[in-house]
Task: structure prediction
Amino acid sequence: MPNNPYLDASVHWRIRSGTLDLHEAGYRSTAEAILSSGLATDVVGLISAGKEADVYLASYNGSPIAVKCYRLYRTSHKGGGPIKLDSMGWKAAKEYEMTFQAWKGGAKVPAPARRVENMFSMRYLGDETGPAPRLSDVRLEAPEKFLKVVMSGIAALAKAGVVHTDLSPYNILVHSGDPWFIDLSEALRVDRTGGVPWVTLTRAAEALSSGMSAVEKYFRKYGVEVEYEEFVRGLVDSLDRFGVMR
Result:
């Protein structure tokens, strides 16, 4: 199990003892897992179903929260075989860490609360009518102004040490008139390289260019020009503390 550091003791025990249930949990089982883990005191319902994880609206002592639960045995959207428990525990742990890093740095991400195994809780973005919509589902009244706020948000993420590697209008929520960034499970830490700086910064540049290309495609329908090449270069330069990309 290469991801041992990310697994809780209970998961280790179930793997060793062979008592791990190899069937994907249904709604009731997942809700019970959320409650028994102490992540929430009530589960209201499912608000988002993705390829690898579901998000539930819950509450903790009356305050609304969101709980993201990674599925354990379904196939990833990238193909291949079923994802194992240790992999999904790792993905939940990484997304929690990346979200916390971004939040700590002041970026617009839902504040994370706690993680248990393949689940973690965070701030609920929405109101009594429902969750905050994705940017892809919104019709903007002032697209040029909103684009500037989105780009400022991407820069704030980078300043906090996080580069979103799957940036798109589907991973940006519109809440209280602002863009909020979600789904950071594949994000890249850029405040500490942990390896060869050139490799990390090259990956960051590629991810930023790809993400901004997706953003450009969205704003193109409004007739808004997105000149992002200089924006990406400026961000990478700001992250290049040792001048390895120059």
Observations:
- The radius of gyration is 19 Å.
- Residues 1-7 have pLDDT under 50 and may be disordered.
- The chain has two domains: 4-127, 132-239.
